[in-house]
Amino acid sequence: MLRSILFTIELVACVACLASWSIETDRSTPEKHGLFEIREEARRFIAQENAKGQQQWDALDPNAKVVVPRCTVPLRAQWTPTSLGRSKPSVMVICPAAVPNLVMGKWNVDVAVKRKPDREDAGNRP
């Protein structure tokens, strides 16, 4: 009986923690790089690409399951190469040098993108 009560309390606490989590609050710490900063780098890259005046894109949120060590140098971004087998366009946010750790010395995170509606089409929508 006591175990089931403790389990219920732990479950409620866990749900409350997850409910308060978002990309907006997932910021970098000395040990890990936050998804917020990764998304912002993807958005900066997309803004530069959109300024070229060709296709217009929006960067979406990175996968919430991603956990990567803090990058020791500024992040870079580029289009994810099609040779990596992605079926849809995405932006690759790259860290060429992570803080020393046992798992990875560098990393990259793919951030999905979606095309903005054409300006001509947007006016014709109901």
Report on this model:
With 126 residues, the chain is an alpha+beta fold. It is built from 3 helices and 6 strands.
The biggest beta sheet reads:
4 strands, antiparallel
- Mean pLDDT score: 83
Helix-strand sequence: HEHEEEEEH
Give me the side-by-side strand order of the main sheet. Answer: 2-6-5-4
Q: Helix tally? A: 3
Poorly predicted runs are: 2-8, 11-18, 121-126
Give helix % range: 25-40%
Shape type: globular
In short:
With 126 residues, the protein is α+β, with helices and mostly antiparallel strands. The protein has three helices and six strands, in the order H-E-H-E-E-E-E-E-H.
Task: Summarize the topology.
Layout: H1 2-20, E1 32-33, H2 35-51, E2 57-59, E3 68-69, E4 76-79, E5 90-95, E6 107-115, H3 119-124
Antiparallel strand pairs: 1-3, 2-6, 4-5, 5-6
Question: What tags apply to this protein structure?
Answer:
single chain; 126 residues; four-stranded antiparallel beta sheet; two-stranded antiparallel sheet; 33% helix; globular
